């Protein structure tokens, strides 16, 4: 039995609270159980140097954790003077995942800056971030359409993410911290509304996994992400 | 008339929500109107090098703003690789203010790390931080007493802070962002429950102020802080 | 037809040159076609702080590219004052992959430091690095056995890595730079001699991939890695 | 009795030596007793990015201490790779204080860069810096007038600064190091020639101060600054 | 007798391998005995800010050592976040030495970026770097001539470098690591094909040297550099 | 005729003012004409890590320039967050030069920290620094003898430094800024009281120099340094 009493294929309670803070064009609090992340999408005119004059837009993401979002306090990266390798890995993943569904050509010379800041961590902060940030980006770009700055929403599909893993030999969906720190294999999967893969990142620091386990994890992830996308749709309809 | 329709000596609605996140020994969401700051107090054993072996404790504070807590997005300090002068000034102020009421000798060789992270900014983030952080520190140290790690609460008095200023010639209390960005003089005042001053920081980048205005501002601050300390007491009793 | 005239499942010519430089305990030049990486393994006594006194060892990796290993010169990271996110991602991947097959408990309080420096780049530098670094680590730890510092080789299995991708709709093995910069999906796979997965990192910045393509890529990778491990064994026997 | 045998309201001997070094447009050695600071004002064409095209000028300040200006050697900030929070606080204070009396609109698109470097420290380095830097800025801008680059001196009033504090229960003016390191409250006051306040920064790390003490300190500061401004006038007339 | 059995005035075996890697305009592996350095010359259009619009070119150099090019592993400078003073000294020396023989005026608004990366170190890495980098620069600029981008080769003379020193009282040429770490005086000499000096850098951390020893060392260096320039000519003719 | 009307072998007026600031164990203002450098020597117990437990001492140097010590303002290195290559080169040179005459074994586990801060620059700051720092170190170590912490002065000989160069074809001694910025060759020479060489650093960015010029420069330097050492002796006797 999982520590949280969940079924192997059961997500934690997920909540998506739109308009969470008031300044950003898109602002969403996403909760996967006790994991809470504020995702904002800010739209700025102009693009980074390498895209100047190409008539297309860009989207990039940054990620951070409040020092005491975790069980023991982490050092503040701003005070350390640099972002850890883990932080950079995660923010690159969030950026790639969202770019895969945004039509950058239709965006024009604008940049969407996504910020995912973890208020409280209990495993799965990167997958929660992607899932919540999609809604924030959707809100921000809808606002541009509403203001007449864009004629159509430059979003091709939904995107959401979930973790899966092998915990005590059992393939499970959406690992919380107690599971995550005690599992053999951890895989983060990012998929579109059409059920296609954008990212698959599986890692075994403990016991290597075989093809059967790989398939079981992908099945769990596909079902979990389908459910998350339903929840995104409900939030956006709300 | 003030932009917010408030009386000159009227605070914004203030809320102090305890136990806001679950990992920290003390965790408070403080709201001064639309200004929202998460204040956590973490207790660690050990002290910084310059205090080793002196048998006393220490308290230090860090401050940050989420990039889109403000009207236009600020650059993330962790990505910039350093904290701004303003950030350092504020976190030093928060630390000094709290140390003035904590009995560091009675704390033993422990360190209290205060984190103030601004979720949404509308003026007065440093005064809200001090006011909220006091409650978080109170909760954290009460927990040590409750666990038997301390025999008595090593807190000598309350501390709270508020801004005052001269806005269009009028002395006003607790400036919000529209007032703050349009005032001649801005003063941050930190006081104890006994009505004594810990910090007075008045700045005129515009028109210099005279002794009469100084006195008017101190009067407003004294009354405002007395009210804030009542609200702290109510929150701690809640 | 692939730009390099290779069959879809065909590796580039692979060479593993042991004892490439003379100071390191293990030193290997690995070539995957025109991609050339010097992999060294250095053994030091002692472990990082978080492992002190636990009676086990550690292995960590660093990665770099010579500024003109690439078609246009990249800025030197040492002169920039920081390692890029991509560099950190790769060196974390190399470290995790090798730790998965080294018996850190049997290593004792020693640290293996792996350095992978790209002399010439033509795609696949991270997979070549893992494949070559395994041989360097094997040589370094064999030397400890030979010197009597270890009684048995603390290596549980081989590890090697290869990239696979979808290039112009075609699943292909071991992408070179022309394919890599023009493919829809790119996946790096790390596997053991026993045919189990250590890492699977698939990314679609272009067109998302479906489950069938996923399976085709994993099949190519499994066969490719089996062949790479044969080459490692031949090199170690040489 | 004060350690220096001074009366409570007595300044240390103050000297302002103009044209101290030969390259800067304005160069002043300021001495408050044993505290010695070289203040230079450099004029450059152009303004920082945020002021470009606004037709106004800017003034900014930097502050440093020679490593052995103090009783025990401080680490060199250039070698440490960053300026301390204290340094940043002080240089921001110097800049704001001087900007309050310079007519930036009349300055044109020029920037005045003030450097305050402490050669020998004995308390009050920031107040000596402001007092001396005013004379250096006055010299630099007078030179522009003399060269015909400005038609009138863009300075509205004098500015000077002094510290006051409560030392062993006694309100005192212009604290030297032995008093500063042993006082309950320390307040830095910056005032104009017209007797108005630009900055008031009072801090009690020890015993909080009451309104009466506040008033006593402000009285001492007003008298002290009036005397400092007389000395500035004498120096400029010299 | 020297540890390497060489005569006092005998160079180590020197090899210059052109076209060592394939991307750079000039790429040379230089070997002075067991010291091996990859020298590349990259040509970019444009010049640094301080030369913009002056119609001339520039040449600059960077230097690095692979972490395990040495007997015990050195920390990677990119991971440390800065280049050591030694590295900066060496790369400034290489740049000055090459600029002394390149006709920067005839180069046009182009920049030559030289990278010297030490693969294996056994003393004399800076002198090997200069000697090899000259050949790489020659190849890169010859390519510009061949492509019709320059009408004549903007190189005025050869340049090469060698170390000399006093080892156990004996003046010797081209010190290897065992000699270098055990000598009283070490001098690096850079000379042109015409036998003139570009740089002379002699250092005695141990016993200071007299004028006679100075002259003996300069004699050895002159003969050694003449031989190195013959080898450069042979390599370029090859 | 030299711009300063000096003879080719004539030093600028040199002054060595001891006890220039009051906190350091040794504190000297050295002037070579308009070049002014404050040199302090601070003695601390303990040695750097690489010398712990070896029973010997260490001496190290740091160098800086006030931003407006020069004709146009230089950026402050502390604000830039790093020391330039030039700064590092100079401080390494100062350290090596002084270590060559200090008996580190007799110093015990103490460290001498030399700070050379340029107040006003007019060429030759590094040679003035070495010449002045020797006197500061002598004063600092004499104080240890006087206090009974050392039985004898651990200084083996004097050390001083001067620049020489070829200016408009003429070998000259002690270049000032107008000469330095317009010369073909510049050489810094560091010698002992016994007339032996510690450092010779000659550089030709313009026209390479021949052996005859080398000899002429060394002759000028030898005479100049002999004179500087007389001045050191006079100052120490004063």
Automatic annotation (TrEMBL), chains A, B, C, D, E, F:
Keywords: Nucleotidyltransferase, RNA-binding, rRNA processing, Transferase, tRNA processing, tRNA-binding. SUPFAM superfamilies: Ribonuclease PH domain 2-like, Ribosomal protein S5 domain 2-like. One of its GO terms (molecular function) is tRNA binding. Its EC number is 2.7.7.56. Phosphate binds at residues 86, 124-126. One of its GO terms (biological process) is tRNA processing. InterPro entries: ExoRNase_PH_dom1, ExoRNase_PH_dom2, ExoRNase_PH_dom2_sf, PNPase/RNase_PH_dom_sf, Ribosomal_Su5_D2-typ_SF, RNase_PH, RNase_PH_bac-type, RNase_PH_CS. It is an enzyme of class 2 (transferase). It holds the Pfam family RNase_PH. It comes from the Bacteria. It catalyses: tRNA(n+1) + phosphate = tRNA(n) + a ribonucleoside 5'-diphosphate. HAMAP family: RNase_PH. Phosphorolytic 3'-5' exoribonuclease that plays an important role in tRNA 3'-end maturation. Removes nucleotide residues following the 3'-CCA terminus of tRNAs; can also add nucleotides to the ends of RNA molecules by using nucleoside diphosphates as substrates, but this may not be physiologically important. Probably plays a role in initiation of 16S rRNA degradation (leading to ribosome degradation) during starvation. This is Ribonuclease PH. It comes from Leeia aquatica.
